[in-house]
Amino acid sequence: MTVNLTGTTIRLEGACRVEDAEPLAALLHDAPERTIDVSGCESLHGAVLQVLLAFRPDVNGEAAEASLAKWLPLLLRTDETVAKATPGRQR
What we know:
Blueprint: E1 3-6, E2 9-16, H1 21-30, E3 35-44, H2 46-55, E4 59-60, H3 66-76, H4 79-85
Parallel strand pairs: 2-3, 3-4
Antiparallel strand pairs: 1-2
């Protein structure tokens, strides 16, 4: 399984497949304050991405795969994170 819970952190590791979406959603539903560590993630099925987009958890680490490392933070950003990253921007 590529979705592993360690304390309050959910680690996504290797190739996250469609079968991982439901356990990930359950973990986030049970405790929405959990964070996601993507540093071991090599690929992400669209269903897993949809879970992340729906719950918008805090994400730590940089995905192992280059395009995922580039796009995942952009897809999961919120207005608050954009405001923090853009000096002088009004909320």
